[in-house]
Amino acid sequence: MPPELVLPIVITASVAGLCLVLSWIFQEFSWVDRIWSIVPPVYVATFAANADWSDARLNLMTALTVLWGLRLTLNYARKGGYAPGGEDYRWRVLRSRMPRWAWELFNVGFISGYQNFLLLLLAMPAWLAWQNRSPLGVLDAIATVGFIALLIGETVADQQQWAFQQDRKARKLRGEPDGKGFLDTGLWAWSRHPNFFCEQGQWWMVYLFGVAAAGTPLNISILGAGLLTMLFDGSTRFTESITASKYPLYKTYQNTVSRMIPWMRRA
User: Fold this and answer.
1) Is 184 exposed, middle or buried (0-12, 13-18, 19+ CB in 10 A)?
2) How far apart are CA 147 and CA 165, in angstroms?
3) Contact 60, 139 (CB under 8 A)
4) For residue 178, how far is the Cα from the chain centroid?
5) pTM here?
6) What is the spatial distance between Cα 210 and Cα 124, in angstroms, rounded to a whole number?
7) For residue range 49-95, what is the model confidence (pLDDT) as tens digits?
8) Judging by beta carbons within 10 Å of its beta carbon (0-12, 13-18, 19+), is residue 2 exposed, middle or buried?
9) What is the pLDDT of residue 114?
10) In angstroms, rounded to a whole number, what is the distance separating the alpha carbons of residues 199 and 95?
11) 19 to 15, 26, 63, 109: CA distances (angstroms)
């Protein structure tokens, strides 16, 4: 095994094991969600540190992923994700649809195992950058601008959703009607999941740094962004099935607004 991969792999195995044990102890299954925004910047930083913080591309990738992690962590915290009982509601729904033995296998194999492996794969462009150290170029500039634009887009989308949910809670306390029950204005008028689109896009920008370093788009770093996109596709479909079962008007929203990529409304 390449020595520069030892520490990231040890961290991945340790974190995966910890998430699994904590899920058994507390019977909550959002432990990977709680470390999701923390470990990828750590992995990227290990490669930058391995280069003695002397490589401009690795330092830039570390700075950008730290910004990503800080923003996502703060947003997750304000929604109560780190509080006791802050488990993602989708796990409870899925758990209710599976026999206990199947859920335990799913927890070991997918929630604690696969997802932590995916978080390591997201950092593989940094490994390519470590292996192929070279000056920054045009592709790095494109990746940086794209990453920052998508980071801003996700911040706006999350803030719009936060304001909407806070208003829903206030109206509920006042005994007022809930309305449609979902947000369909602002960025959410262009995409049903603009935050998810921007989240995936940021990691495709990180992949571009790997392309800039390796000099070819066909490299191992495409696995992280590609598998993340597949994960979001499945997760989004499951989330929307729950939402559509709760709010009748959501089906109309699905028929008129793009699911992921921002686009004009359909008539």
Assistant:
1) middle
2) 27
3) no
4) 29
5) 0.94
6) 8
7) 999 999 999 999 999 999 999 999 999 999 999 998 888 889 999 99
8) exposed
9) 97
10) 26
11) 6, 11, 26, 12
* Domain range list for the chain: 3-256
What is the predicted pLDDT for the residue at 266? 86
The dihedral over CA atoms of 245, 247, 253, 254, expressed in degrees to the nearest 10, equals: -10
Q: Are 192 and 240 in contact (CB under 8 A)?
A: yes
What's the token pair of residue 209? 């740094």
Residue 267 predicted with pLDDT over 80: no
Task: Quote the pLDDT of residue 192.
Answer: 97
Average pLDDT value for the chain: 95
Q: Are 158 and 195 in contact (CB under 8 A)?
A: yes
Q: Is 150's pLDDT higher than 80?
A: yes
The residue type at 10: V
Cα–Cα distance measured from residue 137 to residue 15, given in angstroms and rounded to the nearest whole number: 35
pLDDT at 120 over 90: yes
Query: CA 171 to CA 142: how far, in whole Å?
Result: 43
Cβ atoms of residues 117 and 209 within 8 Å: no
The C-alpha atoms of residue 56 and residue 44 are separated, in whole angstroms, by 13
Intra-chain end-to-end CA distance of the chain, in Å: 55
CA pair distance 157, 219, nearest whole angstrom: 32
